Amino acid sequence: MGRRIAIVEDEAAIRDNYAAAFARQGYEVAAYADRPQALAAFRARLPDLAVIDIGLGDEPEGGFTLCSELRGLSKRLPIIFLTARDSDFDVVSGLRLGADDYLTKDISMPHLLARIAALFRRIDALADGEAQEEAIERGPLRLDAMRLAAQWRGQPVDLTLTEFWMVHTLAKTPGHVKSRDQLMHDARLVDDGTITSHVKRIRRKFAAVDAGFDAIESVYGMGYRWKAQ
Fold it and tell me: For this UniProt entry, which residues form the secretion signal (predicted)?
C-alpha cells in the first residue's frame, strides 16, 4: 500500500468522500469520526499525514486539541486542517498549534491532493538527498536534514516539517533575500497565504531558546533573509 493518510471528520458523508478520493490516489486511508477514536489509533500507530477538521462531534475545538496532542506524539508528522471555519483567528490558531497547512472545505479536490503531495515531496526530497548539504551550520544554527533536527546555540528547536524547510531554505544562502515566491518553491508550499504566520512561529520558537534571536530579517517589499554572520 501507499502512504497512510488519516482523515478525522465527524460528518460521515464528507469523511467517506475524502477517504474515497485519497484511496483512488493510491493512499492507504484511516478514517475517524471523533477525537478520542483518532487519538487512540494515533497512539497505537501514527499515519504518514493527518487531515483534521476543527469541530468534531460535541467538541467545537476538538481538532485544535487533537492537533496539539498529535504534535506531542510527533514533531514532524505533516498535519493539515480541513475545515469550514475560515476566520483569520482560526487560521492563526491552527498554525500556532503546529499545523503545516490550513485549508477550507470549499477547496477543490485536485487542489487538496496537490497540497498533500507537496508535503510528501518535502519528505521525499530529504530521502532522495535533494537537500544539497546533509548538515548545515551557520554560526549558532545547525540543521540536520536527514533527521529534520534543528539546534540553536546547542539547544534543540522543535520545528514542524514546513518550518524546517523554510529555515533550511533561508539558511542555505545567508544574506540573500528569498522572495515569497522563492520560499513557496524551495519550501514546497503551494501558495504564500501562510508564509507570514509560519515565519512568526519560527521566530517565536528560536526566541524561546534565545531571547535575542534576530537571524531572520524581513526585507520590506521583497521577502526574508537569514542574516550573514
Answer: none
Rounded Cα distance, 7 and 38, in Å: 9
Distance from C-alpha of 167 to C-alpha of 215, rounded to nearest angstrom = 10
* Angle made by CA atoms 159, 107, 164, in degrees to the nearest 5: 10
The mean predicted confidence, pLDDT, of the chain is: 88
What phi and psi, each to the nearest 5 degrees, are found at residue 124?
Answer: -65, -35
What pLDDT does 55 receive? 95
Give, in order, the Cα–Cα distances in Å from 12 to each of 15, 28, 30, 32, 111. Answer: 5, 18, 13, 9, 22
Q: What percent of the chain has pLDDT over 70?
A: 92
CA pair distance 130, 143, nearest whole angstrom = 15
How many whole angstroms separate alpha carbon 180 and alpha carbon 186? 10
Under CATH, which architecture does the 4-127 domain have?
3-Layer(aba) Sandwich (3.40)
Task: Measure the CA–CA gap between 175 and 195, rounded to whole angstroms.
Answer: 19
**In the CATH hierarchy, which fold is given to the domain comprising 135-226?**
Arc Repressor Mutant, subunit A (1.10.10)
The pTM (predicted TM-score) of the whole model is 0.72
